[in-house]
Amino acid sequence: MPETKVEDVVQRLSRRPGYRLITYREVAIPHWDVPLQCRVLARKPLPPLDEFSLRSIEAGLHTSDEVTRFLGVPANVVEATLGKLLSHGHIAPTPVASDTSVLKYFTTESGKKLLRDMSEISIQDKTINIPYDGLTNQYKIVDNTLRWRPRDLRDENVLEIPAFPADPPEVYASDTAAIAGAIKEITNKIDIEVITVTGVDGRRSRFFVRGIALVFQSVDSPNEFQVRFAIDGRPSEEHDLAFARAEGMRKLGITDALKQSAMAAEKVLSQDLLSQRLDETQVSSLRRTTELLKAQLNTLEEKGAVATEPDSDAGEMLTDEVADLASRLDDAQAALERAPVRILEVHEHPSVLEDALGTARNRLLIISPWIRAAVVDDAFVRSVRILLESGVQVSIGYGIDDGKGAFDRDRAAEGKLQQLSENFENFHFARLGDTHAKVLVVDDRHAVVTSFNWLSFRGHPNRPFRDERGTLVTVGREIERLYTDYLGRIRVATAVGTIS
């Protein structure tokens, strides 16, 4: 999608009264470019010579010779111009009484109106290409920067939302009233007015608009879900409603998948530990507080950066206010970090992974079913290399199958990590072949058990819709248990692979 980070958009749109965000997905909304065959009233600017000739006659130069002498152009050119104006009904001739071979011209009402409008009107047949949204079933403008070809989606592994109905639109004359306004708005042309739309003139080419689908679960009714869409970083209620009307959740199997899913921690962590989980309301409150304080702090720091007199009273007050906000932000973040067990929201996972790659000091363990190039890119591999060079023990276990169906680019990403493991003894890297687990352990600081795919969240369109929130644990013995258990699995898989 555009330059705005997906996670930033998701975080901004994640709060919805009475609902909790449980997963999100980058999606592609189907569109067609429809070449509409239209009959239009078209206005075109009056050519300069036509205008000057008409204005000359209106000003009292009634004969061809008078207009020729005034304009200083060849007589045959003026004759041709006056003939065209005459044929269009903008001027009318009257013989000169003293010489019937000479004609005098006068502007008609049509000519006078033409001078006022400075344009001619004619009926024309035009083909106008208009984008059609296959989800909302509306003709609407689509910026070229937002368009994706089918090939682009395959390369990026973005989930395609089907059109409802699936077929491209047919167009008939009876659709004129519904389409005419859209044509006017989309083309932004004041020089045409649609008389009738007669059909489709040629092939309707398919393209997609990239967006984000956010899935919310009702706090009071766990089996009630809603999908909200964001297009170009902004919420789109018309897509929400269209998807709901088309029963998109049911047709895509989202509803059943979500009803069957549960947070991964329920299967891995003990009930005793889960009972220590900080209340979701408290977590949300602390998170909102940190976000608000960060925003206020950024605003004040920007003011300080442009302050012309930092040593003035106003500058000192600004400095004190920044320090106070920074202190309150530290307290709020510390309160979150002190929680022995807490919910990790789905949109927090990418930043937690990024932080782990940048701050791990002793050990880092990642368990993920898939490796996708969209996540394990050059920057990711570089971060792992830096950790290894600094002596950090890095362990990655992956693979829910044998990987034979993986795309070439994903195999290449896997190969880069494999090469690192051959170059660094402190890198344990193994295909487990049967793992559904998604686990992250960073030093002795925290462990995360989740349904979020750590190494494929940006490039796995077919992953099932499930509650992708995680559980972050800071209890030392549990961190050690998770690390030991999964590191043991990685070592066994490495040994088996070495023997085979």
How would you characterize this protein structure?
With 500 residues, the chain is an alpha+beta fold. The model has no long low-confidence stretch (mean pLDDT 85). It is built from 18 helices and 18 strands. Strands 1, 4, 5, 6, 7, 8, 9, 10 and 11 form a nine-stranded mixed sheet that branches. A seven-stranded mixed sheet has the order 12-18-17-16-13-14-15, with helices on both faces. Helix 2 (48-58) crosses helix 4 and helix 3 packs across helix 4. The longest helix is centred in the middle third of the chain and has 27 residues, at 280-306. It has helices at 6-13, 48-58, 64-71, 75-87, 109-117, 150-156, 176-187, 237-245, 248-251, 254-260, 265-268, 271-274, 280-306, 313-338, 349-359, 378-389, 408-423, 476-499; strands spanning 19-45, 91-96, 99-107, 119-133, 138-139, 147-148, 159-160, 192-200, 205-218, 225-231, 234-235, 341-344, 363-368, 393-398, 427-431, 439-442, 446-450, 470-473. A hairpin with a 2-residue loop joins strand 10 (225-231) and strand 11 (234-235).
Shape verdict: elongated
Counted by DSSP, the helix tally is 18
What is the end-to-end distance? 43 Å
Rg over alpha carbons:
34 Å
Percent in strands: 25-35%
Largest sheet: 9 strands, mixed
Give average pLDDT, whole number.
Answer: 85
Summing up helix and strand content along with how strands pair, one would put the structural category as alpha+beta
Strand count:
18
Low-confidence stretches: none
The helicity comes to 40-55%
